[in-house]
Amino acid sequence: MQAPVAVRIARPPGGAALDLDALRVLLTPAFEVSAGRQSVVRRTVLDTFDRRLARAGQRLVLVAGAGDERLELTRNGRTVAQALDGTALRVPAMAGALPDGTLKDRVAPRAGIRALLAVGEHRRRTCRVELRHANGETVVRLDVDEPAEDGAAPPPTVAVWPVPGHRREADHAWRLVTTMLEPVPCEPAAPPAARVRPIDPGVPAQTLLAAELTRFLGQLRDNLPGAVADIDTEFLHHVRVAVRRTRSSLKLGRPALPPHVRDVWEPQFKWLGDRTTPVRDLDVYQLGLPEMAGWLDAAAAADLEPFRVHLAHRRAAERRALVGALRGARLRQLLDDWPGALAELADSAHGPDGAAWSAGALARANLARAHRRVVRDGTAISDASPPEDLHDLRKRCKELRYALDMFAPVLGDAAVRTAIKDLKKLQNVLGRFQDSEVQITTLRGFAHEMVAGRAPADTLLAMGELTGRLHAEQQRARAEFAGAFAAYVRPAGRRRMARLLADLPAVC
After folding, report:
1. How far apart are alpha carbons 146 and 123 in whole angstroms?
2. In this prediction, what percent of the chain has a pLDDT beyond 70?
3. Please, what's the b/e burial string for 465-492 (b: 16 or more CB within 10 A of its CB; e: otherwise)?
4. For position 112, what pLDDT does the model report?
5. Are strands 68-75 and 58-65 parallel, antiparallel or unpaired?
6. What would the pLDDT profile of 41-79 be if each residue is shown by its tens digit?
7. What is the set of domains in the chain, with CATH numbers?
8. Per-residue pLDDT averaged across 84-111, rounded?
């Protein structure tokens, strides 16, 4: 492991080629210049599918050449860590497979539960140049890096590495290099967040629906290969998000959609959502098991090992069925036919039937109804209300949240963020309440399955302790409900919702 080094990088201006002879002439009056042999290396950029490292200003590269491999991590254009042995890493790989040390400590928290993938690869011609004093002591090192082949490879660069104790010489070399080359600007800490493109409330509702549904289809297609290959659990999660948003958009758009769109496609996407549920539910348990093990007081974390094995066996069986569905004829047909249906929907928006509902009118109808139901159902809940009433209210809140997300292009980004902020605390409380109940029921089901398989008594007792912890969490969420709902229906929040609706055209 090598300590972080302040490395500065420069490149020819305007995408020009690098003139090594001119660079040597520039440096020779100040240093003895000794260039090593050129070698060809392969640089593979690693990141998660959703580019978590890039969004944090990090760049992880696996450098392979001449039988050696190393990992380099840069942040904002500067090398911050290296792992000199990257030979054990074969991607896709979780960050836990990285060599122990500073590089892993920096990358793993960013990557989280997402696998590292090869997101770019180029062959490069490299050369180490040493700048020396007259006595032969090396005081600065330059790494010259150029494309080894034609194509869309990154431009050539020169990296200036200071030798410990010779920072002054490195600064001098940098000043000379940047008279000929331009510094590589620091990468932004994160790319700007994607902004919602506004849509005139008067456009046909089918135009908005077709655009949103097309976007969700793209997300579904992007994540399906990773879900089939089981690269990481988030691919399946994002498949489900795309399906859920598609289903909610079809439901919200019912008044403006032709009957055949509702009749044909709502059942298709319900089938896909139902098919992905078992594996995702098991993923949530497996991901949460380390945290749940930390809840134990009377039992030991090791007592849950048979439970972990049981979950793994259940997931393997459910995944076989899921992969069969994701590779099957029904999904292929859905993906073949759905784009044509969306194109037809977009075209029909300009006809007399498509113009019957404007995007603004559909937004107003859905938001007013969803908000009214949340207020009505929440007001009716008392301390004596059964759990089912809180579950139903959670569904009403999700309907309102989906409507806010879907109609954000009509409502405006700022207005939607404020409305979601008002709703989020109430959703969190209701989510904790329902998730705890679902987990309690599911844990009991797992326990019955494991009793039949002669699970150790210590494991069953540990699972019982987890059930008790979940019950206590459910009770805490129940006690917080009244305060969370009162905060949501406070006068300021109601006025904001009224203003949001007032800016929309009247319902047809």
Report:
1. 9
2. 93
3. bbbebbeebbeebbebbeebbeebeeee
4. 95
5. antiparallel
6. 888 999 999 999 999 989 999 988 767 788 989 887 677
7. 8-183 (2.40.320.10), 210-355 (1.40.20.10), 358-508 (1.40.20.10)
8. 87
Residue at token pair 């705890």: 436
Q: pLDDT by residue (tens digit) across 291-320?
A: 999 999 999 999 999 999 999 999 999 999
Query: For 372-422, how does the pLDDT look when each residue is reduced to its tens digit (9 = 90+)?
Result: 999 999 999 999 999 999 999 999 999 999 999 999 999 887 888 889 998
- Give residue 245's Cα distance to chain centre: 16
| 286 contacts 246 by C-beta, under 8 angstroms | no
Instruction: Convert 114-146 to b/e letters by CB count within 10 Å (16 or more is b).
Output: bbbbebeebebbbbebbbbeeeeeebbbbebbb
Amino acid at 311: L
Asked if residues 342 and 217 have their Cβ atoms less than 8 Å apart, the reply is yes
Higher pLDDT, 267 or 153: 267
Mean pLDDT of the chain: 90
Buried b / exposed e across 431-444, counting CB within 10 Å, b at 16+? Answer: ebbbbbbebbeebe
Picking from 370, 371, 391, 379, the residue whose alpha carbon sits closest to that of residue 478 is 391
Q: Which CA distances in Å does 447 have to 305, 378, 433, 441, 465?
A: 13, 34, 21, 10, 12
Nearest to 216 by CA among 360, 411, 406, 365: 406
Of the pLDDT bands very low, low, confident and very high (cuts 50, 70, 90), residue 2 is very low
User: DSSP secondary structure string, 25-46?
Assistant: HHHTTTSEEEE---EEEEEEEE
State how far the Cα of 418 lies from the Cα of 121, in Å rounded to an integer.
42
Return the pLDDT at 188. 45
Question: E strands within 390-466?
Answer: none
* Residue 3 pLDDT class (50, 70, 90 cuts): very low
CB-count burial class (<10 Å; 0-12, 13-18, 19+) for 261? buried
Cβ–Cβ contacts within 10 Å for residue 167, how many?
A: 13
Which residues have C-beta within 8 Å of that of residue 78, sequence separation ≥ 6?
6, 7, 8, 186
pLDDT digits (tens, 9 = 90+) for 479-506: 999 999 999 999 988 888 888 888 787 6
Phi (first) and psi of residue 148, to 5 degrees: -95, -5
The DSSP call for residue 296 is -
Longest dimension (CA), the chain: 89
Retrieve residue 350's tokens: 């300009």
Q: CA torsion sign, 423 to 425 to 428 to 433?
A: negative
Rounded Cα distance between 21 and 52, Å, is 39
| Measured CA angle at 313 (ends 306, 244), to 5 deg | 115
Nearest to 397 by CA among 364, 434, 361, 450: 434
Copy the structure tokens of residue 103: 């590089």
Cβ 152 vs Cβ 83: under 8 Å: no
